[in-house]
Design a protein that fits this description.
Keywords: Flavoprotein, Oxidoreductase. InterPro entries: AcylCo_DH-like_C (IPR036250), AcylCo_DH/oxidase_C (IPR009075), Mycobact_Acyl-CoA_DH (IPR052161). The relative contact order is 0.13. This protein has a single domain, classed as Butyryl-CoA Dehydrogenase, subunit A, domain 3. With 117 residues, it is an all-alpha fold. It contains five helices and no strands. Helices cover 69% and strands 0% of the residues. It is elongated.
């Protein structure tokens, strides 16, 4: 939100809507993570919910960095831009810690009860 307030044109309603959606998605991620942490703190196991959180986070991270790059425009692409570096790193998120496709299979089998392929 601070990045948008500092760098964006407030009359750009499309960008404002994208920032609002990013805030909603971030809050949903926070609540998902809180649920997993609560389960773990009570001695439970993260189970397939951890896969759901991993998928959501890795895709959200890419979207947040893309939005930051959009807000900053050409300023985001300077050589020492932490946003540009963050965006580049975010692209690896759907791959490391188990690809999102593998994580989706875990969710399909263990949460939805779908058969293995």
């Amino acid at each position: 939100m601070a990045l948008w307030r500092e760098h964006a044109d407030p009359s750009d309603t499309e960008l404002r809507d994208a920032v609002t959606q990013a805030w909603i998605d971030t809050e949903a991620y926070r609540l998902q993570t809180l649920g997993v942490v609560t389960t773990l703190s009570k001695g439970g196991h993260a189970g397939p919910e951890a896969s759901m959180v991993k998928i959501f986070w890795s895709e959200l991270d890419v979207r947040l960095h893309e939005l930051a790059m959009r807000i900053l425009g050409p300023r985001a692409e300077v050589a020492d831009s932490s946003w540009a570096k963050g965006w580049q790193f975010s692209l690896s998120g759907p791959i490391y810690a188990g690809t999102n496709e593998i994580q989706r299979n875990v969710v399909a089998e263990r949460v939805l009860g779908l058969p293995r392929k």
